[in-house]
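Sample entry (454 residues):
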Amino acid sequence: MNIIIVGCGKVGCTLVEALSSENHDIVVIDSRPEKVSALTDTVDVMGIVGNGVSHTTLKQAGIETADLLIAVTGSDEENLLCCVIAKKSGHCQTIARIRNPIYNEEKDFLQKEFGLSMIINPELTAANEIAKVFQFPSAIRVDTFAKGRVELLHFKIGSNSPLCGLKLSKFHATLHCNDILVCTIARNSEEVIIPNGDFEFAANDIVSIVAKRRDAIDFFRKIGLEKNRVSNTIIAGGGKISYYLAKSLLMSGIKTTIIEINQQRCEFLSEQLPKATILCGDATDKELLSEECIEKAAGFAALTDLDEENILLSLYVNGISSAKTVTKVNRINFTSVINKLDLGSIIYPRVITAEYIIKYVRSMNNSLNSNVEALYKLEDGKAEVLEFLLKENSAVCNIPLQNLKIRKNTLICCIYRNHQVIVPSGQDCMMPGDSVMIATSGYNISDIKEILED
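Predicted structure, serialized as tokens:
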């Protein structure tokens, strides 16, 4: 697929790295020569120094034959204009990054009037991910499928967990949880395992399970990880993610306090979020945190602009309280080190954004078998969990799963049919219209038939 990416900032670079690994032909455009050179020197892409709004620049990038243009510059207006010119110049699909809360309120109108295929708001998307974790704090990450009806829950095994040393073959009999399916195990931030019956759980493993909410609550209670939904939250930093998160939490009835050092930003937040408590101060001030009873907080989100501050704040809060902590990290170069720290749930906004766009790119294949409905990457892309909506003539339909020749390192996690969640057995069949969750490790797919051996 021919893809043009306008903007070589954090999100643009993450997109280039992810999409280039999937064998797309990519051209990047940015007005900063050093940004373009940094990408073309490390990734096999073509770079153009110029203004992405310029028709001449877009023509040079091959807009007339492009399949997709993604505008992720720092300016919402530039992204919108770039997409409009691209639509006029060629016949490609367009995706724009829109961050302004005012525009976000009008995104449906903008998408329709500007002919956009997709609008992505990284800050809103990250805030939604954090809100899900605060709603279900037993998990360190919550991914949703089937329009929110099915959840993939990730949790970390503690050193005293009853799971330590337990073989997967004895999992259901020991814990009496037949409606829980173990999908993947991330171990030592180096590998993601799709386990078989001989697999043995160990401390510090990151386990992902598929379950209905009530079954998951019962399971977490049995392994000593039961936590109630947070009742109050302190947010360090008053940026866009904090704004969207506070808005969501307040709507859910969760008392929310934001600590922001910039006076002007505090005034904006006070006007826009009248039900929130806005404090003008330094979130790294221990006395201020103590005055706000951080020791008794149910939830804490470190969302300042500095990764170092966020990491230190979460480590400090985890040391003095039992709060559910969320840590925002922008840089992804040291994930193997960061994942070893006690930071609670870690949010990488640019990675979340890239996942949404990659899902759309794969769905453009217009397969006869299935559509990609959702996609989540695990451990820097070492594994993926995807949702497919099966079509009438899909090659995998109406065949018992035990008779399908499924590739190694592949697991059919869940089938959602007629408002029912099915944890599949060998006798179950996938049917047209089903939403099916698939976990893969070591390879990428864009069509469900690709889970079958050649």
